[in-house]
Amino acid sequence: MGETAVFGAGEYEARCRRTQEAMAGEGLAAMLLTSEPDFQYFAGFFTRFWESPTRPWFLILPATGAPVAVIPGIGTPLMSRTWIEDIRSWDAPDYDDDGVSLLADTLRELTRPGDRLGVPMGRETSLRMPLADWERLCDLLPKRTRHDVSGVLREVQGQKSSAEIAAIRRTCQIAGRAFDRVPEILRPEVTLAELFRRFQTLLLEEGADWVRYLAGAAEQSGYADVISPAHHRPIVAGDVVMLDTGAVRDGYFCDYDRNWAIGTVTPQVQEAHQILFETTETAFDAARPGLRVCDLYHIMETKLSRHSPAPISGRLGHGLGIRLTEPPSLIAADTTELVPGMVLTLEPSLTMGSGKMLVHEENIVITEEGADWLSPRGPREIPVLEWAR
Amino acid sequence: MGETAVFGAGEYEARCRRTQEAMAGEGLAAMLLTSEPDFQYFAGFFTRFWESPTRPWFLILPATGAPVAVIPGIGTPLMSRTWIEDIRSWDAPDYDDDGVSLLADTLRELTRPGDRLGVPMGRETSLRMPLADWERLCDLLPKRTRHDVSGVLREVQGQKSSAEIAAIRRTCQIAGRAFDRVPEILRPEVTLAELFRRFQTLLLEEGADWVRYLAGAAEQSGYADVISPAHHRPIVAGDVVMLDTGAVRDGYFCDYDRNWAIGTVTPQVQEAHQILFETTETAFDAARPGLRVCDLYHIMETKLSRHSPAPISGRLGHGLGIRLTEPPSLIAADTTELVPGMVLTLEPSLTMGSGKMLVHEENIVITEEGADWLSPRGPREIPVLEWAR
């Protein structure tokens, strides 16, 4: 293992073994993976180079043994420093054959006619390769049937190891220290766009490797949505400011937010903040192995509905780890059972009578006994920043 | 158009019209798009929310008129502030039907049996939706034939408007100011991981919205690869330090690097740096409308080969804009003709006798007369940082 690996080879071997047990249950000869988080999870292959959409990358997990990498030559030095030993590469980009025949050859070697080949095809997945190349690959692999493995991956990756939980906790703590310092940067005349820049700087100063996700808002008495880019108006008294981050350290995300009121706060916003806090408190107290995700959703939904003029819509949390958002979704349709090692966000939102909304989010891990906070617990009362003039 | 739009509606209308002209040439009734850069390009829809892989997003460009958005409800408020008026949404995630039947209904409304439906299927593209949902969509849309539009998108998006070129130039200037300040942060005892954090902070301070990509290296007399994550060893005398960034402002990338030598520098590194500088100089002088990308490649390759102990491998540059890397690739197989408005990186690399490599990268735009630098021109001589003890 090279100097850049986050975990020892044992961690990756254990992940592969657990996955291979689930694969055996579904009679799979191999699994084909193409995405950044799957390369990170099984190979320990970390790079920001996924930002370039030019080259496809392939990782094959056979029924037994270590994964085989079929990758562009530019990735060979880095892949050679992971625990993966069987690395096959081509000089990409190749307009005539961008790894497809090399991949087909490798899959023919690792599987036999009649075998089932696993590919993530279900929700929250996508195939990171050109569709035409995928179709050509299928033509080059006659007599292998494709089988959706998104369920297998959800189950295996959803149950984090103690090393993974420690990594997520560390990222949450980094964000916690940055959130604590927000009063340093949320000053008179700052625009939301500038606040975004300064908050990213705080996250880096506190130890984030990379700020992959940042959202937020600053509007009078609540906000209209939570995914818009930052505006260029100075933040003013009466604004409710929200910052929500997915910072990354060693490949693991946090995902939680904090709210502040500037100068003054309406009773409606104060009350909404308390209700959201109490909703996360109630969910935290209820969360334990055996409870289903939909049960947790209903507990939160019941609490929120009592105070919401509008019906509750959208999910109230989700999984978290090597992706900003992972399965499960806290919705009525998700019957996943909570198990120890599952990392979740609790993310209740409330639309107030004014039509504006407020969102509060925390990160937890399911333990044998119940749940632990991964994000340093936010305050029940919305903090009011007094700006001296 | 809302406050968050980067360009006026006219810019997006013109993009759609140009694309629709190319679509008419291929007899297409509509085009289906699923990716972040395509949403940005045609709808002016900007958000960092693409970091969440949970929800699929669909944009349909009909043969005439404005695009139609079929999107998760969480995106409606933001999409309503773009120039897009026909917005259809569902409450995602929906485990039974995550937008697929709504998308099929919309496509049935916008196309007729026998029509050709465009989808990006070729190189440098991927379909950002679950494969199983794509197959279900095809079943729900009988009698429409699929047609690869990656060539159409390459041509249209490859020729940037003056507004786009100005945006890329601005991002390049932001990175230029950050690179100028590197001596402030590249100090004794700093590790490469810490340098990465500090450099991201400089980029934000100088005006980047977001540091989507950062690569670099710090090794004795050159480096072994250019995509590895940062190491945690203190940088020491004799190291060659490289930083390569894809910062973003208003959705447009820069992508170029700079090198520094610490304390001392070998004649081999000095010479390699000069050769790389001269290779970009030669390429810049040659670049003009009508020259083919492969010609530009051969000009660079010829120059480099004279000094390289190893054969030149990999590409020597690429397109740049709403993606860190876009078509074309500067390789022998790319016969694309240069046209005014094309933005390129010139990225020659040289493997020295030691086996270590050096990379130099600049960003240019093709003009009527030749080429313009978008990145502030780097130095011919590698700067040597003297660290006082």
TrEMBL record, chains A, B:
Keywords: Aminopeptidase, Hydrolase, Protease. It holds the Pfam family Peptidase_M24. Residues 167-368 form the Peptidase M24 domain. GO terms for molecular function: aminopeptidase activity; metalloexopeptidase activity. Residues 15-155 form the Creatinase N-terminal domain. InterPro entries: Creatin/AminoP/Spt16_N, Creatinase/aminopeptidase-like, Creatinase_N, Pept_M24, Pept_M24_MAP, Peptidase_M24B. PANTHER family: AMINOPEPTIDASE, XAA-PRO AMINOPEPTIDASE P-RELATED. This is Aminopeptidase P family protein. It comes from Palleronia caenipelagi. The lineage of its organism: Bacteria, Pseudomonadati, Pseudomonadota, Alphaproteobacteria, Rhodobacterales.
